[in-house]
Design brief:
Blueprint lengths: L11 H15 L8 H13 L11 H17 L7 H17 L1 H8 L30 H21 L11 H10 L3 H23 L2 H9 L3 H11 L9 H9 L1 H14 L5
Length: about 270
């Protein structure tokens, strides 16, 4: 097996691109040997700075690195050993996409040969198939979110898995999208937008008051830092006034549904 290149000698995105190479080099039956390299790669991810403000220029590379690690874990068949880590990586990807939407959209609009493509409308038409547009949240779309997540929960319980990848058009992905009544990229964009708000709401609720502060103090340092970052902003800040009203009107349905999903996904502090 090739040696794992030290993190500080290469960029974050490049470091994670080495992980699939490990999978190929080790061959069939070598998955258990990949657990430690994947743990090392995860620690590299934790050292990556948080993308926000001017740092959003690095957001596409960060998301690429995070997604590369997730794919490596899945291809190695080690998802069950990295349940907490994969959940945190997905949440971080969603947070980066939410904070750095313009940078991510700009990267998606650039073709492989470096030429700029016109940014597509969120209503469809010429939108590239790999874009997950951030929709304007409406009551109808929140209903679609509810239908989709309920179907994800059904499938997770039926299969014993901790998540539905929504990363390709598998039978499960199609079922979720059809239940929501949306195309898969549209559902992913909707799910990311709503989850970002519900996750922030959950974090504010979890660490509110004296009990919450005591809970916060018991977290591992990197998790405490993440929680403090989340608590620094208001959960509904990313929403327009109309979106805020729509989400708050359905919050009694959305939060219990989100909490059910989180319980099955085995989300830990």
């Amino acid at each position: 097996m090739p040696a794992f290149v030290p993190f500080r000698l290469i960029s974050p995105a490049a470091s994670l691109l080495l992980v699939p190479l490990l999978l190929v080099a080790c061959g069939d039956g070598a998955q258990p040997q990949l657990a430690e390299p994947l743990r090392q790669a995860y620690r590299m991810l934790e050292e990556m700075p948080r993308a926000e403000g001017d740092g959003c220029a690095a957001a596409p590379a960060m998301v690429q690195a995070l997604d590369g690690w997730l794919q490596a874990v899945e291809e190695a068949g080690l998802s069950s050993q990295f349940t907490t880590e994969t959940t945190e990586v997905r949440q971080r990807m969603d947070a980066i996409r939410g904070r750095c939407a313009d940078a991510m959209a700009s990267a998606q609009a650039t073709s492989a040969d470096g030429k700029r493509r016109p940014r597509a409308s969120a209503q469809g038409g010429g939108r590239a198939s790999n874009e997950d547009p951030r929709p304007t949240l409406t009551p109808d779309l929140l209903d679609a979110y509810i239908r989709g997540v309920e179907e994800e929960i059904v499938l997770m319980r039926a299969t014993g898995s901790h998540f539905i990848s929504l990363s390709m058009y598998s039978e499960e992905d199609r079922r979720v999208a059809e239940k929501a009544g949306l195309e898969l990229p549209e559902y992913r964009g909707l799910r990311r937008a709503v989850d970002e708000v519900l996750y922030a709401h959950l974090m504010h609720e979890r660490y509110a008051g004296a009990d919450g502060q005591a809970r916060l103090a018991r977290l591992e340092p990197h998790k405490r830092e993440h929680a403090i970052d989340m608590l620094a902003s208001e959960p509904f800040a990313p929403l327009s006034p109309a979106e805020r009203d729509a989400v708050q009107a359905r919050l009694d349905t959305l939060r219990p549904l989100y909490d059910r999903y989180m319980e099955i996904a085995a989300i830990a502090d």
